[in-house]
Amino acid sequence: MRYRVDFIPFSETIDLSSEEKVSYILSKVVRNTILVLEDGLSHTEEMNLIEKTMSKIDFDKFVGIKLFSIEGGDDFKWSRLFSKNNKTKGFTIVAPNEAVSVIKDKRGILSIRIAG
Amino acid sequence: MSWRLWLKSKPKSINLGFYGEVNAGKTTLANKIGKDWADQEVGVVSEIPHETRTIQKLEKVNFSSNGTKLDLTLIDMPGIASSVNPKEFMKHGLSAGEAMQRAKEATRGIVEAIKFLENVDVALVVIDATRTPFDQVNFTIIGNLEHQKKPFILVPNKIDLPDADIRVVKDAFQEYTVIPVSAIQGDGIETLYDTIAKMAKKVR
């Protein structure tokens, strides 16, 4: 299986409602795309995403997602990945469940293996 | 007795919800509390993930700790997960048909558990102390409880096992109330009862 990684900037999701953002994410993830969202999800949006994911599972091609949110902190410099502005409160990675596995996941360190 | 005194002496009714990842030991803990205070179990425990696929309730649990009396309803939730793969169940010896049925029920159970969150008064977020606590599900559950202003206790479970690492859990959740327990052996359970009583006071 081949996966694509999309880095989604603020500008792509900033005008979407929470519901629209969740739908947008799922529409891409079910098509084997790993998303790195500059506009990280709130915990409420994460829960909504998990709930909506359950209705998309077909047990054949799509069995769910893996979800990682990295929260911004004083020493958080990852926002430089995307832009010069300081809007970034953290970012969220959403991937098809089968696409990634966590090698090491500690605060500040996230190592994931992408399936070949 | 005046009605005011009667009302004051009446145990407060509390919906105590058990939330957490799959196979964290939620049902084992609910059963421990059920047996201690009502001589009844809440649900069936299994090594196979997603054994609890519908909300299980045990009502009229007369609980008392440090002078606080509560009328508890124990609500054991299906484990929350962001994926459900029937192949995982087949590794535990289930047939393809059984695994598929279990997977379908599990997805419905997860949705049911999420929707029920608003009905819970106090939540126990059960964490498997033998696993890394950094699963996003734990943070998602905690974040939603905070958002809804629900009192909750983080309960690292299975501390009797050699792989359990309470320090890692406490470090990860320093700003929260963390009460480690072994639901099977009863370690830490009295401290948990005291803390449930304290948390219940926050409920109006």
Report on the structure:
- With 116 residues, chain A is of the alpha+beta class.
- Chain A has three helices and six strands.
- Chain A has a four-stranded mixed β-sheet with strand order 1-2-4-3. Chain A has a two-stranded antiparallel ribbon with strand order 5-6.
- In chain A, β5 (100-106) and β6 (109-114) form a beta hairpin.
- The longest helix of chain A is centred in the middle third of the chain and has 14 residues, at 43-56.
- The model of chain A has no long low-confidence stretch (mean pLDDT 84).
- With 204 residues, chain B is α/β, with parallel strands linked by helices.
- Chain B contains seven helices and five strands.
- Chain B has helices at residues 3-9, 26-38, 86-90, 96-116, 136-147, 166-172, 189-201, and strands spanning 12-20, 56-65, 68-76, 122-128, 152-157.
- Chain B has a five-stranded mixed β-sheet.
- In chain B, α5 (136-147) links the parallel β4 and β5.
- The radius of gyration of chain B is 17 Å and the shape is globular.
- The A-B interface holds A 42-44, 46-47, 49-51, 53-55, 57, 59, 63-69, 97, 105-107 and B 80-86, 100, 103-104, 107-108, 110-111, 114-115, 117, 132, 134, 136-137, 139-144, 146-147, 172.
| Largest sheet: number of strands, sense, barrel closure of chain B | 5 strands, mixed
Query: How far apart, in Å, are the first and last alpha carbons of chain B?
Result: 23 Å
What's the helix count of chain B?
Answer: 7
What portion of residues of chain A is helical? 25-40%
Give helix and strand order of chain B, one letter per element, not per position: HEHEEHHEHEHH
Strand arrangement in the largest pleated sheet of chain B: 2-3-1-4-5
Q: Which segments of chain A are poorly predicted (pLDDT under 50) over 5 or more consecutive residues?
A: none
Q: In percent, how much strand structure appears in the residues of chain B?
A: 15-25%
Looking at how many chains there are and whether they match, the oligomeric state comes to: heterodimer
Radius of gyration of chain B: 17 Å
Q: What is the straight-line distance between the termini of chain A?
A: 7 Å
Greatest chain-chain interface? A-B, 24 and 30 residues
Read across the widest sheet of chain A, the strand sequence of neighbours is 1-2-4-3
Q: Which class best fits the helix and strand makeup of chain B? A: alpha/beta
Mean pLDDT figure of chain A: 84
| Number of E-state strands of chain B | 5
The number of strands of chain A is 6
Average pLDDT for all residues of chain B: 93
